[in-house]
Amino acid sequence: MNDLKARVLKATVLATIALMTVLPAELAAQGIAPDKLSGLVIDDTKAELVGEWLTSTSIGPYLGESYIHDQANGKGEKSVKFTFRVMKPGEYQLLIAYSSTGNRAAKVPITVSSGDQSGTAFLNQKKRPELATGFTPVGAFVLAADSETTVLIETKGTTDHVIVDGIRLLTDSELKIARTAEKTIPKGIATVKPAPKKKVGAKKELPPPVAPTFARKPPEKNFAPLTSSEFDRLLGLDESSELKLVNDVRFFRRVSLDLVGRQPTLDEYRAFVKDNSPDRREETVERLLTSEDFGRNWGNYWSDLIAMRTPEPQLTFLNYEPFRGWLAEQFNKGAGWDESVFRMVTAVGKVSDGAEGTFVGFHQGASNRIAGELSRVFLGVRIACAECHDHPFVDMPQETFHGMAAFFTRVKVDVAQNNSDNIKITSAEKGEHKMPGAKEEMKPTIYRGDSLELGISDLKRREQLAYWVVNGDNPFFARAFVNHIQARLMGRGFFDPVDDLGEEAEPLLAEAHEALAAHFVASDFDTRSVFRTIVNSRAYQAVERATPAATPESPDLAKDAPQRAAFTGARPKKLRGDEVFDSLVTAVSLPNTKETIAKKTEAVRFPIPPKSTRDLVNEAFGYDPAFRDALINRTMDQAMFLINNDQILKQVDANADSETVLAKLLKDEPDNQVVTDVLYARVLTRQPTVRERAIVLKHVDGLNDRERAFEDVLWSLLNSAEFTTRH
């Protein structure tokens, strides 16, 4: 990227000091035929305009019949976007066509985006173009053949007239030839007659597209519900199996972290300990499932799953908070997972008006990226390896990937600078998808199955795809969701990694996986039903993994005993960033502060959004939920954050005037043993062992400074591995 910026800077300087080309008077106001120039040439009439522009033929030469200008008004509200694909990837010189006089803008911003790369150059239109045909090079850019490339010319920050006439792509060798051949206008290319002046770009706005309404379509197959006891039996456990369960308090912390993303509050802990009901585990599960924190926690999980692999567009910082809130609402109101995913795939309009548009909008409408991520996130099938070539390990030809990408080829996304809430999803009226280097247009095709005819509208394509994705008969959709939940709750999914259910992957206990997925379909994709089935099982509540023995009734049980043992007792799991933050809030009332947003200046046009405390915790402790446990390491950043972060240290302050949780506890409670027990309950949801209590009390007595001693204790508990681990 540094090399790209250097090329852009160098080319910008060249454009600024371009030679003053003297043109023959008889050609000064004539149009140049685009098809008679070398390279890829796109006239302004082929671009997408925002705002009202005026056509003109006053100063020549110009490309085509005319050029356009912004009338030197409406600055920041007008732009011109050229969209195209190159057949061959590589480095290209971008040239901009314009006509120059003294009333032109001196610093016109031009942003080029292709694949994962982007760059911005500035053009001085007061200087004559370098080539006599009206073109000036503005930079060298590496362009991807499998992605749309956009060239955005804006009026932000300009004064005087901004001129847009067209763009041109040349290789280095072609540019070298053009610099020689176009020192003057070659004969035979100035053949276009001028067009009359008119206003363009201020077209009558069409009514915004309306997203399809979801209506669940019943599957053709019959799917049976599953009880927790039946689930246990599929894992090799029954009522007679010798199995030690975790004690009630440990279960309480485990299930609280898993369902609502934080350890229990002190009041919740005390109420649970006092409850002698034989059904208190089941009652606790139901209370947590109906808590608003349930939707918030799992909304954060699925948002992270999408966000961790979504690149940020140029000059825009993606804000996932609205999307997290929308997902939380979907979970909490009991919306079916099929409906939620359907709405994400078929979303239109501004993200601020419907956060379900985040998935398509934040991927900038890039058909290849959306296709690959939709398949990975919601179906658990990684097709991205077949984007550029046939899959190297499984029977997946390149056509499989591009058939899916064709469903999104007419998606249009307007990326708003500085504010991702203003990203807008619309539809193009035409356009088809092609594989890199191919001439044939691809039909929208579901893997290697059903396909749609060419010419189908954007929303019809996405609607048909969405219904196939979320249908109960789809062998991937329900299995992908329950695999994620199983992996998070039990510490190991039926497939590992959790987002790879492809044909090369081998599952553990496929029968149990299929039964849990069938239960999900039978419940009309009720997400709570999956959690309820798993956390009420003896397998989830077990304290250790046991290897079941074969019985006369199940003589083959021992053959897959190691697999079944993997799902007997929930494995320890590192807390995600949001879970760490919410647990800090529960333990020490950590506030979520945020700095004031910086103001835009000439030097800083795109100030970085201020980070909240939650953001800082997520930076240190957040990770991609699809990562294998072996890739989720404890880091020095995490250790240093808990050790000396200013905000955490303020909450550990025991001085009476600090009004922290610890300060109030020491003020109200003179008994050091009670204080010790309360701190353990707040931070670790348990009582200290006899040895731990003795160590704490010895430290407090020996330091002869009660406030400093208990600061040490609280600080040590927060920095323990136990605090940031679900076990």
How many strands? Answer: 22
CATH class of the largest domain: Mainly Beta
Average pLDDT score: 87
Give the CATH topology of the largest domain: Jelly Rolls
Number of helices: 26
The poorly predicted ranges are 1-28, 546-550, 555-559
Radius of gyration: 31 Å
Q: Give the CATH superfamily of the largest domain.
A: Galactose-binding domain-like
Main sheet?
Answer: 5 strands, antiparallel
Task: Decide which structural class fits the backbone.
Answer: alpha+beta
How many separate domains make up the residues? Answer: 4
* Principal-axis shape: globular
Query: Within the largest sheet, what's the order of strands?
Result: 3-7-12-9-10
Overview of this protein structure:
The protein is α+β, with helices and mostly antiparallel strands and about 725 residues long. The protein folds into 4 domains: about 200 residues, Jelly Rolls; about 160 residues, no CATH class; about 180 residues, no CATH class; about 140 residues, no CATH class. About 35% of the residues lie in helices and about 10% in strands. It has 26 helices and 22 strands. The strands form 7 sheets. Strands 3-7-12-9-10 form a 5-stranded antiparallel beta sheet. A 4-stranded antiparallel beta sheet has the order 2-14-8-11. Strands 13-6-4-15 form a 4-stranded antiparallel beta sheet, with no helix packed on it. Helix 4 runs parallel beside helix 6 and helix 25 runs antiparallel to helix 26. The longest helix has 16 residues. It is globular. The two termini are about 45 Å apart. The N terminus is likely disordered.
